[in-house]
Amino acid sequence: MSNKKKLSSTLSKGIFIPSMIFIIGVCILSAIFPDATNSILDFVKNYIFTNLYFVFVWSVTAFVLFLIFLLFTKYGNIRLGKNNSRPEYSFFSWISMLFAAGMGIGLMYFSVAEPMQHYTHTAFSENSTLQRANDAQLFTFFHWGVHAWAIYGVVGLSLSYFAYRYRLPLSLRSCFYPILKDRIKGKWGNIIDIFALCSTFFGITTTLGFGVLQLNSGLEKFNIVPDTSFAYQALIVIVLVSISVFSAVSGVDKGVKVLSRINIVSVVVLLLFVLFLGPTVYLIGTFTEGLGSYVSRFFDLTFSTYANEEAKQPWFFDWTILYWAWWISWSPYVGIFIARISKGRTIREFVSAVLIIPTLFNFIWMSVFGNSAVWFDQNIADGALSLLADNPDALMFSFLEYLPLSEITSFLTLAIIIIFFVTSADSGIFVMNGIASRNAPTSPKWQIVSWGVLLASLALMLLRAGGLEALQSMTLITALPFAVIMLLFMISFVKALIIDQNYYERDYSVSTVPWSGQSWKSRLEQIISFSDKKTTNEYIEKTVKPAFESLHKEFLENGVNAKLNSFKDPNKMEIEVEYDLLNNFIYGVRNESKLVSDSLMNEQNSNVVENNRVFFPKSYFGDEREGYDVQLFTENELISDVLKHYERFLGIVSDEKNQLFTSRNVNKRMK
């Protein structure tokens, strides 16, 4: 029994087994036949990029416009969770984690390399030096700006909404519920999750593989390791993945959050160092100019395909389309992780933070490092950095040699790369385990460790055999079908938002009877007086209870399956109508209190106020809509109010399109 318990697993066989067969199969082919596999996959990738690039351009444009639409409409007020839910993490922790997961090692790898490669690319050789420098910054902004984060945002937002608002599993299959309904529980849902797991594994493996190469290059430069042989690469992978596994086992609230916060502080320190000890005035000026160029040319860049400029099209395919494919292929992993930490945020808060804050930081980072490198290359290095443009593994460390305290900053850079490596790996392990276990609340530690072992083993196998390029091509190929899947996410999301908004905005029908003006004198007396806790409890006992009892009796006589729910606490009572397949109708009244302003404390009728609080009977409902004060209702009027809400309930549940909100089965967490 003890051994059986230790070996228990939360893995879903329908997801895990097919995914492992495909992942291990592709990795073995890439390792045994690296050249042949890479040749085939590279051919497929190039065909997609050359002939179907418009799919990426249109899709990414749609993602950006969709999120901007949500930002400025009424849907932005919807919360990712219950209406009264609040964020689990502080704003700083939230931003740190989504930033570390979303960009990670790429910031260190491309911050100098990408601007220098645009600056030296033959497609722009006819331009002046000034124009090439300006374009290098602009293209880097374009590739690391709003478009990249819009891709992540669509997946993360869709997952957050369906997981926390509709109480479905934190799984890509949940985003299809308005389209597929209960079919997401079967093979269609498994196929979606298999795709997400494979894409996530390929993306993390290739990124970490290239990260190891850069880290190894830096360690060699400072004589920490003698060379860049496979033995030292293996040592780096084993050490860092071990740390990642430990962090993943610790959980998001501990390992991932702590490392992300350390990393963001380290990154800011390095950024400020380069900014103030580099060509500061030049950097501030070029950042300002670059930001203006990005804003003014935003739509021009978005829709540019260089169809009439054949000389620039290879650059367009190798950079812009590759980037869109790369971000899309990473979006299942990053989206799931962002969703995991975003519960309680509003849609507007989510979109604003995800689109603006990381984008602005990326712009500052790329400007400081990229523009400094261009300036050094023009004024100090005499073109030496341009010659290293095709060697991004060593370019960052060579760039730092032109700044004071280069050894210290290089060690800090190594530390940041290591932490980015660990945060990418541990959040990746966390996400992959979540996909494979269908978001089980807890998993055995050996299972989480196994993901780290598998990740390290396959990465080392591919590093040894030279198969990383093939796996990278495979990752980019998967981006095409997932771009289409993401477009379906948006359709499904809009459909759900419309239902959501109608559900909470739907008013009483015109057949309901408004409150009459009878007994207005006694009501005025009630309005201007306060109640203590005892008086409110008496109202519940003498008015609410008889009203509910009369209504309960009448429900039963008319064949309605109703029951009265009384509680040990005399401050609460409710009537409930039960249904087999639907969420039950509930109308309740409970004793609640509120603070009284000091300006009313001197009123002659405030003698019942207890510690600046007054009490009142407040209604509440089974669907968590906000209730209201019912103390002015007579017994018959309270019955009438219950019937108004019951009539509204029947009107909603009778409409088939509202099934997602009203069905008891779909609102249960699927297992």
UniProtKB/TrEMBL annotation:
One Pfam entry name: BCCT
Transmembrane parts of this sequence: 12-33, 53-72, 92-112, 141-164, 191-210, 230-252, 264-284, 321-338, 350-369, 411-436, 448-467, 479-498
GO terms, molecular function: transmembrane transporter activity
Recorded topology in the membrane: Multi-pass membrane protein
Compartment(s): Cell membrane
Family matches, as InterPro entries: BCCT_CS, BCCT_transptr
Predominant localisation class: membrane
Alphabetized UniProt keyword annotations: Cell membrane, Membrane, Transmembrane, Transmembrane helix, Transport
GO cellular component: plasma membrane
Protein family: Belongs to the BCCT transporter (TC 2.A.15) family.
Family annotation (NCBIfam families): bcct
Protein name: BCCT family transporter
Originating species: Brumimicrobium aurantiacum
